[in-house]
User: Fold this.
Amino acid sequence: MVKYIENWFSNMAKLYTPIIIEGISYCSIENAYQAAKTLNVEKRAHIAALEPGYSKKVGRNLKLRDDWETIKVAVMYIALMQKFDQPEWKAELKATGIEYLVEWNNWKDEIWGIHCKISPKAFAIPNGKSGNNYLGRLLMFIRDNEAIDTSSYSLDDTQQLRTLNDILLGKLVAPDNKLLNSTTHYETSLVPSKRMNVAVYGDAINAVTPEIVNRIDNLINLGAQIHLCNSPLASTIKDYLDSKCYSRITWVNTQDLSNTQYGLLIKQDSGINDYNYHPASKTRIVLVNKETKLC
Assistant:
């Protein structure tokens, strides 16, 4: 059986609350996107009633509307906006912080994602391939920007959709080529809320020590969401994460660090009593100026 990478934001995911576009209810983004390939309302309703995976197969065999290639990014945005306006999905997207989102895939889709290798555990392994990653870039646009009002848009209005399509292509964040050669293995099957959330905090340091490198690398390999608050230490850690092409980072206020599951405390060799964001059982402590101790 062929294994496929499961991105947490997959368009195949069935929605608890269907999205409704022009009176038709869709159980997934995939159904809505495939249905928009035709101007025939009866065919749209038929595709809406299918399982997401089968809707994709049916969509591939449709005679495409003449304007499809010039409107498809706009169609995807309209559908995604409805999905990620739902509270649970909005929270999942916001939880990615400033992470650069990529639809890694092993089915050679270089339009909506980036093709990569897959490990035995279904990890996505970037291998230098390129791709437009329109899905990941649309999600970042939705996460980071005010919504474009599409309530009056019609799937039958070519000019309206083309205008939106052009606007989006002009505003989407550029592809991040650093990611293409990253050796980091991403566990893309985990949704952000279920990833390990780790606060990294403590004393300012001039450079990361081998022990800190080891600890941070472990977090990277786990695909952890790393929480930082503005501080000299955070800047140093962020520089190191940037050098590893790692972007699963959330900037938080100091008081919000305690909302994370775990902590990595980087501390000079003085007392640690003033660091109480996490129970000792959930905090790993790196003492910089003497032999490292972990607890």
User: Anything to note?
Assistant: Residues 7 and 280 are 33 Å apart (CA to CA). The chain is about 35% helix and 15% strand.
